[in-house]
């Protein structure tokens, strides 16, 4: 943040109500509402100072805010879905621990390493080795033994799909 803007932002809480009203007139080319409290004026002025320094909201962000506002006016208790819609055909790329992960977005979910998933969270859970270790330890069943065939081999299996082959006793 430029030093000039940082100083102006830091000074806002120390300004009198009269000085804040004057700054409002400079920044908005209009007088502030007569009944606007000082504690509400400060964050609005801070936003305007930052907006002048860094630029205003993008058109997409403005559109999303309008959409949210209309939805709230229709039903203030409704939940508003996330605007994040990733188009089918999009490829998501993530590098983590020297490994590149590619996820293809499809119309009905996601494809990752040849498997289909309903959400990105499901992919994250399935690809996190630490998470897999926790899930295996929760679901690990006691070892079961069974003798198969005439050669007398015993297969010891557990829920984590590890298989050990040992001669029958």
Explain what you see:
The structure is a single chain. The protein is of the alpha+beta class and 169 residues long. It has 3 domains: 3-54; 91-127, no CATH class; 139-169, no CATH class. It has 6 helices and 7 strands. The chain has a 4-stranded antiparallel sheet with strand order 1-2-3-4, covered by helices on one side. A 3-stranded antiparallel sheet has the order 5-6-7, with no helix packed on it. A hairpin with a 4-residue loop joins strand 5 and strand 6 (153-157). Helix 2 packs parallel to helix 3 (38-54).
List keywords for this structure.
169 residues; four-stranded antiparallel β-sheet; three-stranded antiparallel β-sheet; 6 helices; 43% helix; elongated
Estimated radius of gyration = 30 Å
Find the structural class using helix and strand composition: alpha+beta
Inertia-based shape: elongated
- Helix proportion range: 40-55%
Question: How would you state the average pLDDT, rounded?
Answer: 77
By DSSP (H or I, 4+ residues per run), the number of helices equals 6
Cα-to-Cα separation, first versus last residue: 76 Å
Uncertain segments are 141-169
Number of strands: 7
Going across the biggest sheet, name each strand in turn: 1-2-3-4
Largest sheet: 4 strands, antiparallel
Secondary-structure element string: HHHHEEEEHHEEE
What portion of the residues fall into strands of 2 or more residues? 15-25%
Structural domain count: 3
């Amino acid at each position: 943040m430029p030093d000039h803007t940082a100083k102006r932002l830091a000074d806002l809480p120390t300004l009198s109500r009269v000085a804040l009203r004057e700054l409002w007139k400079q920044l908005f080319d209009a007088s502030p509402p007569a009944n606007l409290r000082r504690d509400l004026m400060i964050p609005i002025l801070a936003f305007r100072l930052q907006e002048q320094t860094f630029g205003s909201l993008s058109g997409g962000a403005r559109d999303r805010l309008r959409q949210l506002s209309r939805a709230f006016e229709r039903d203030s208790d409704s939940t508003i879905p996330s605007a994040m819609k990733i188009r089918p055909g999009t490829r998501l790329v993530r590098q983590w621990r020297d490994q590149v992960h590619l996820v293809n977005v499809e119309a009905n979910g996601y494809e990752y390493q040849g498997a289909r998933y309903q959400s990105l969270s499901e992919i994250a859970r399935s690809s996190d080795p630490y998470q897999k270790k926790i899930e295996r330890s929760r679901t690990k069943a006691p070892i079961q033994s069974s003798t198969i065939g005439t050669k007398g081999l015993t297969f010891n299996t557990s829920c984590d799909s590890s298989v050990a082959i040992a001669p029958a006793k």
